[in-house]
């Protein structure tokens, strides 16, 4: 039994006066204790909406959520607002992309951290302050006692993200959802933060759901990877398997289009043509077909099923997957 | 003779305060003495983290920022000293592609108008009909349909908008294009399209590029020569492959080890050099080597007192470090002890962030005979994710303002939206 | 390869599935804003009210059943004794204190009110926009000298803004004497610093945008950058403000008339004047005040609704 198992999660925005927009269209995955699972995709693939749906942070109005998301046997999607609020912070925690806007600008860091400790762990006064300082210390913020008195704008971007992580892990949550936690940071700072996350998972056994567009980050961090496209997972596999044998044409194309630091100069990139706007509805066929070099008429007759064309556990949603024989161009 | 030569270029933004007439109370040293040269047909990649001054430098070449000191010699003419009208004429030959494809296109102009305006300003094409023909030609070259002419920027996807930005530069038939983070705002799958397009155009039109980016992988892919910037100065410059094969400056090493590679095999083997702390404020850069406050190999002698020059170490590989040879020979030891670690053993990183206490408001330069672990206090932190410009400087102002109340007023006195680039509010130190 | 089979079919099917509603000719932001306005209830209600008001203002004098100044029923009204004539078949809105038909006066007064509103708004808009453009252009592209110019202009507008608007209007009216023109100028002058500040602020924001930098980099002359790049993008808040200030202009003009600074000829009807005349008889005949007051309120509401709807439609954040 996984800690979190998401089945056929779908999120549709039903704003008045507009066409319904399906952001997530049947995503399934599972996260185990101490595991790092990645949701990878480009903008508009539904990865952030998935995380917000799991945290119950989507507005109740104008949003239709379907499917199941079982956390420790309870369905997060149907849970009452009150129960969910208790879960957030103590069992589930989230780290956002922009640390500055996720922190209250007019309240010192210390109070923001102790507030969580008071609410979820019942710590008071000096005890809470001590614990807060040790949390900041834990995430690598030097001189934590002084930092507690400072306001978010007085910290650098990296420090803010650390403070946010400190708040997220304050109650030793069992699942941490990180939505592009390093996108706003410089690479050297990103390296620091990734190390910190890795350490948390290794030492505390926290499960981590990592949401990112950066395949490089995924390669170094995640155990299981789900590649999302237009609101659906198109490929799911273990990290090594996925990067060694990307089988969905999208995943394959994505890896071929990233300039790699270790590739010699002049090695050509093979971009995927078009943009995310060139898609068709999943109901009509494979959303990626308009950008795909491999598509056939079958791709345009309904949603392709998840299959395991290569090895067990390596799921691919494609009628014409990139298999060793197909890799040889005609 | 190189096509474009920068000679000790400095761009310092004055930090002002005052109610009616502003008084300069200090400077943000955004670019502080950069010399480099770019050969015709070459791509020079400038890489560095936010706040290092790379964008400011790129804009300074086009005189979009005032150059405080130094020369920008383009094809024999020093642009830095040109009167503004003559400079305007020169802009035809030096063009720029911007980071934000949507923000850099006027939302109320259609594509034809956007593209023809520059042509009209430089007297290219007799009339609109002739210009339109040329524009159609360029649109085809950058891979846009010709019916794009009558459409508006918001009707295109991110990648297409960047193609429009490139077309805007190309219609003027420039010699040099400065690409400021040309792909960082684009989706991964689209980035490669634009990179390939830039490469194709270079080949067919013989363009010279100055590519400014924070993504080392992109820069390495596209550049012939790479310059690494840190806090307003170049710390290393080398041919692309040589830099990757053998980075020599400690900062370059750290930067390179931090770039994630989409390959688990590589990631698992990699040893990361984790730098401690953040970038110091460009309003108050550390004395001596700019990097000494974060350098894992910082030595007691020289590093904090003497700024190392960028010296050629052979084969065009230039490094600005006092101890390049010693570090490579292993004769100097790491001093910030936890600097290098294998990915797996990082428990101590945080705890041992040795003596780097950010936000300290005084810079103490340790004397040469200071004890081994003399506190190296770093000046107030620059906001790492602030997008260069003076926004970074403004942050700094806010930050340092906790030092004295007087200085706090500076930050408050910010006149509404008054072009943040021109006027960096901050509080430098005495 | 199976991939290339029946290529034509594939293309057709794809085209059919990805068919987008996107037109080939572009839609400018102005047109898009207009499209959004059309689907906004607020805009429609506002536009209907304004349309009705303008219609009344135009055709009012022709359809008015009686002369607005004719004291046809002088003998039926005894204001000193508190005897008035209310609504009746012949005079829908009743009679005023001089025995004139209120309905006719109301219809004719609409035109004067609209005139005052529009003219004073235009005075404020035109002069304010000129000052604002000058200041904004000087600040964004004028270098050091330009910033001095901008500072001086802005300190001056600050002084104007710091004076209470009605007081300023009263002083102007006192200097220029009592006339309808005075009211229009007074109300207009009060709006000048508002428009100037607004346009300058908006231009400063736009002046820092990347596309202005791009235009500079392309080598476009500064004057042209201001005219083709900065200005068109800075206008939306000014347009919204113009609509909103029509409402305040009408109210302020009414206030000035009410204070007796308006049209010296009390015979010519104007809603503000009518309101001020009704004041004396409010105890006996409150309806005399109600008609012009309701007219002013509803008209002001109409302009405000339209202005707010415009603000929403022109907001770039809501685009898409």
From TrEMBL, chain A:
Keyword DNA damage: no
Membrane topology: Peripheral membrane protein
PROSITE patterns in UniProt: ABC_TRANSPORTER_1 (PS00211), ABC_TRANSPORTER_2 (PS50893)
Location within or outside the cell: Cell membrane
Top-level taxon of the source organism: Bacteria
UniProt domain ABC transporter: residue ranges: 6-255
UniProt-listed SMART domains: AAA
A GO MF label: ATP binding
Major localization listed first in the record, in broad terms: membrane
InterPro entries from the UniProt entry: AAA+_ATPase, ABC_Ni/Peptide_Import, ABC_transporter-like_ATP-bd, ABC_transporter-like_CS, Oligopep_ABC_C, P-loop_NTPase
This protein's UniProt keywords: ATP-binding, Cell membrane, Membrane, Nucleotide-binding, Transport
SUPFAM superfamilies (UniProt xref): P-loop containing nucleoside triphosphate hydrolases
Pfam families: ABC_tran, oligo_HPY
Signal found in the keyword field: no
Family: Belongs to the ABC transporter superfamily.
Name the record gives this protein: Dipeptide/oligopeptide/nickel ABC transporter ATP-binding protein
TrEMBL record, chain C:
UniProt KW Membrane keyword: yes
Record-annotated membrane-spanning stretches: 43-64, 114-141, 153-174, 180-199, 238-261, 289-309
Gene3D superfamilies: MetI-like
PROSITE patterns, alphabetized: ABC_TM1
Cell compartment(s), UniProt: Cell membrane
InterPro entries: BP-dependent_transpt_permease (IPR050366), MetI-like (IPR000515), MetI-like_sf (IPR035906), OppC_N (IPR025966)
CDD domains for this protein: TM_PBP2
Keywords, sorted A to Z: Cell membrane, Membrane, Transmembrane, Transmembrane helix, Transport
Domain ABC transmembrane type-1, residue spans: 110-307
Topology versus the membrane: Multi-pass membrane protein
Tagged with keyword Transmembrane: yes
Domain of life the protein comes from: Bacteria
PANTHER family membership: D,D-DIPEPTIDE TRANSPORT SYSTEM PERMEASE PROTEIN DDPC-RELATED (PTHR43386:SF1), OLIGOPEPTIDE TRANSPORT SYSTEM PERMEASE PROTEIN APPC (PTHR43386)
Family: Belongs to the binding-protein-dependent transport system permease family.
Protein name per UniProt: ABC transporter permease
Native species: Streptomyces rubiginosohelvolus
